[in-house]
Amino acid sequence: MELQNNLIIFLAELRRSVRFLAISLVALTVLLFFLSSGLLATFQGHLQEKLYFFSVAGPFLAHVKIAFFGALYLLMPLLMYVLWKALGKPFGVSGRRLFWFVAATCLLFYAGTIFCYLVTLPFGVRFLLSYQSEEMKAVISIGRFVNFVTIFILAFGLIFELPVFMIFSAQVGLVRRATFERNRRYAVLIIAILAALLTPTPDVVNMALMGLPLYMLYETGILVIRLLRIDESRQPGAGTGKPEGREDGDA
């Protein structure tokens, strides 16, 4: 019943901002559509190959996708604020704690996208194109190229936020650090599945480029929880005066 009530509170809080977010996303997408040619040229710099289209609407749809991706990217702080405000409502997370969760999430998201754009994406593109030869040349669709780049970058940004959500779940008592530590093998399995689903291509290299950083972030989340002793106050005997616990006044 408590989980159900928390879910209802979360959805109710989230619903208040949906209309504003939708309007902002559409308006910014329309604005960025006129700048999408420059964004496409920037992305194509990683490819260093010509792009082709195989339908009349192909170039137009590619520019719309880039504009939508740019809008999502720029609105991420607002999206994270709305999400964390809704997540924190059932657990009483507000004020300074809410600010730090939003700030850390945005920082990690942009760090993940920059890492992907500067390191992972060029390496992945070069690896995939290394299989072409004199007899077999790449003919790359503009639509598929835009899908590959935007999904890859956004996915990296999202997975880099994993430690923050682990810390939040430990702080509000949803999942203890010991649970994360005991279930590492299941975490590896879930990470492999996520890497297969989120990477635009099913090759092992691109899956590894996403899966390995994701597992490192998982271990980072466990380490931060341990160092900050976030869930220590929820250990057995905490605040009860027993020798193995803490007094309520301890920080």
Core attributes:
disordered C terminus; 251 residues; 10 helices; mainly alpha; single chain; globular
Describe this structure in words.
- This protein is an all-alpha fold and 251 residues long.
- It has helices spanning 2-33, 36-47, 58-74, 76-88, 95-129, 142-159, 162-171, 177-182, 184-198, 204-228, and strands spanning 51-52, 140-141.
- A two-stranded parallel ribbon has the order 1-2.
Any chance you could write out the topology, listing elements then pairs?
Blueprint: H1 2-33, H2 36-47, E1 51-52, H3 58-74, H4 76-88, H5 95-129, E2 140-141, H6 142-159, H7 162-171, H8 177-182, H9 184-198, H10 204-228
Parallel strand pairs: 1-2
Helix pairs in contact: 1-3, 1-4, 2-3, 3-6, 4-5, 5-6, 7-10, 9-10
* Helix run count: 10
Distance between the termini: 31 Å
Roughly how much helix do the residues carry, as a percent range? over 70%
Mean pLDDT: 81
Major sheet summary line: 2 strands, parallel
Taken in chain order, the helices and strands follow as HHEHHHEHHHHH
Strand order, sheet with most strands: 1-2
- What share of the residues does DSSP label as strand, in percent? under 5%
Low-confidence stretches: 235-251
By DSSP, the count of extended strands is 2
Computed structural class: mainly alpha
Rounded to the nearest angstrom, the radius of gyration is: 22 Å
Give the tally of structural domains. Answer: 1
